[in-house]
Amino acid sequence: MTEHEDACVAIAKALRMPDGVANAMTQTMLESVLRKTVAKGGDPTIIAELSARSEEFVLQVGVLKELCVDKGLMKVVIVLSDADAAFAMPEDFARQYT
Question: Higher confidence at residue 85 or residue 25?
């Protein structure tokens, strides 16, 4: 499996596809599922919470970008989950750790 295919498998698992389907997922298969959804009047939107510390981050964002922007098959909202990032909420021990 290539790293690109690994990203498709990770996306399929996040979408809670059955393990047999998710483990064999390719970008072509993912595109087919999305095309069928659009053809039936669906408007697929994926909200992906990704950790910037993950090495898979770049690959998964690349696949999502290609399906969203390049092919126009879905809408994607990417939520960056990184507690150490400049945009992260400051720690508030009184409320967060009680």
Answer: 25
Torsion over CA of 76, 74, 10 and 54, rounded to 10 degrees? -20
Verdict on whether the full-model pTM lies above 0.90:
no
47-84 burial code (b ≥16 CB/10 A, e <16): ebebeeeeeebebbbebbeebbeeeebbebebeeeeee
Report how far residue 83's alpha carbon sits from residue 93's, in angstroms, rounded to the nearest whole number: 14
- The mean per-residue pLDDT over the stretch 69-86 comes to 77
29's CB contacts (< 8 A; 6+ apart) are 8
Helix (H) or strand (E) holding 65: helix 56-65
